[in-house]
Amino acid sequence: MFPLELNPIAFSIGSLPVHWYGIILGSAALVGLLLAIQEGKRFGIVPDFFLDLLLYGVPSAIIGARLYYVLFKWNYYSKHPGEIIQIWNGGIAIYGALLGALICGIIYIRKKGYSVWRIIDVCAPSLLAGQMIGRWGNFVNQEAYGGPVEESFLRDKLHLPDFIVDQMNITGVYHHPTFLYESLWSLVGLALLFIVRRQRFLKAGELFLGYFIWYSIGRFYIEGLRTDSLAFEGPAWLASLVDGLWSPMKVVFDEGFLDPAYGNVRSSQLMAIFIIVVGIALIVIRRRTGQASERYVDPIVRRVNPAVATSETAAAGDAATDSNEKPGAIERENGEQEQAAEKTETSTDELKKENNDRSL
User: Fold this and answer.
1) Considering only CA atoms, which of 30, 23, 138, 27 is closest in space to residue 89?
2) How confident is the model at residue 170 (pLDDT cuts 50, 70, 90)?
3) CA-CA distances (angstroms) from residue 285 to 203, 224, 274, 276?
4) CA–CA separation, 292 vs 79, rounded Å?
5) How far, in Å, are 3, 5, 158, 255 from residue 165 at the CA level?
6) What are phi and psi of 265, to 5 degrees?
7) So where does this one cross the membrane (predicted)?
């Protein structure tokens, strides 16, 4: 008899089931928002800016993550198109989510007049925190796990609690909790980002690039343990290169099974290599060419389009007029009454003067 699995449905509202996966992803987004708002206060950025960024970014991330996943599984989804939107059953790719959110964020940030590098720096810890929490959605759905291991490895060597060990029992076989490895890697990275962002040597854009590099290093090695990797058929030299870079892990762990029908190169591993190389190159190039002139700790300046500024000022003026409409009417009425009183006093003084002249 297999250990009891967690129910992926937390509760139901009428006939509508609410999945733990959605609750966990929602919690991840909320934590990320709060972190961005808190850091944004140091630079004078209003919370509404990050709230709007989240409202635009989350749908974009979900769409990007799903499209990325479906693209690599098109042989299946082309025959089951009705399942393309069923993200509550899992099947989203983190790199697709980051790409979708980044494209949306760049458009929104530029429209608001901020430097893209400065804002994505502020958001970097939020992204990593969101990934750290979001991986537990994979835990509930029993997905994104690694290759087979002995139960004793989970209990005696990793000293994992029963609820994790039991959930890693997939149809009678225990597996690497790769969701946990990645979550812990993200937690360490988050602590490092919190420390580094207070250092004066850090240039604008480097916190975000550092986050991407850190996450991709961990993802490259953890991905090799998984058995559900998205993959494609690449040239032999590329597959050999990826395998060679991952080979130090073979001293401790066996590589996760990769279905030859999917391909011979794990897409996430190749993407991780690409991001690491590009991230390091950007840091070096931006410093040597002087593009990284601002430091992370420098004030963030908003360059507002005059038309946008005029529109926002007008809107603020209209709001102020509406809120003060009644007091303004009262002031005008009081002013008219004062003018009438002054005229009455003037008429009275002139009449008194005329009478005095007649008496004389």
Assistant:
1) 138
2) very high
3) 12, 31, 16, 14
4) 49
5) 9, 10, 10, 20
6) -130, 125
7) 20-37, 49-72, 92-109, 204-222, 267-285
Phi/psi at 252 (5° precision): -110, -45
How far, in Å, CA of 24 to CA of 68, rounded?
21
**Residue 84 pLDDT level (bands cut at 50, 70, 90):** confident
**Angstrom distance (rounded) from CA 98 to CA 222:** 18
Q: What residue type is 304 in one-letter code?
A: V
pLDDT in the model for residue 81:
86
φ/ψ (deg, to 5) at 146? -100, -165
Q: Which residues are annotated as a binding site?
A: 135
Q: What six digits make up the tokens of 146?
A: 């690694």
> 263 CB contacts (<8 Å, ≥6 apart)?
231, 232, 233, 234
Residue 132 makes CB contacts below 8 A (sequence gap 6+) with: 28, 183, 186, 187, 190
Per DSSP, the three-state class of 235 is: coil
pLDDT over 70, % of the chain: 82
How far, in Å, CA of 214 to CA of 222, rounded? Answer: 13
| Cα 154 from Cα 152, distance rounded (Å) | 5
Using alpha carbons only, how large is the chain's radius of gyration in Å?
31
The residue among 228, 214, 213, 212 whose CA lies nearest residue 179 is 228
Q: Are 36 and 122 in contact (CB under 8 A)?
A: yes
pLDDT digits (tens, 9 = 90+) for 243-286: 999 999 999 999 999 988 889 999 999 999 999 999 999 999 99
Given a contact cutoff of 8 angstroms between Cβ atoms, the answer to whether 241 and 279 are in contact is no
pLDDT 10s digits, 307-332: 555 555 454 445 445 444 444 444 44
Q: What is the DSSP letter of 303?
A: -
Distance CA 122, CA 133 (A): 19
Pull the structure tokens for residue 275: 């991001």
Query: Could you tell me the two tokens for 49?
Result: 């800016």
For the four alpha carbons of 237, 241, 246 and 248, in that order, the dihedral sign comes to positive
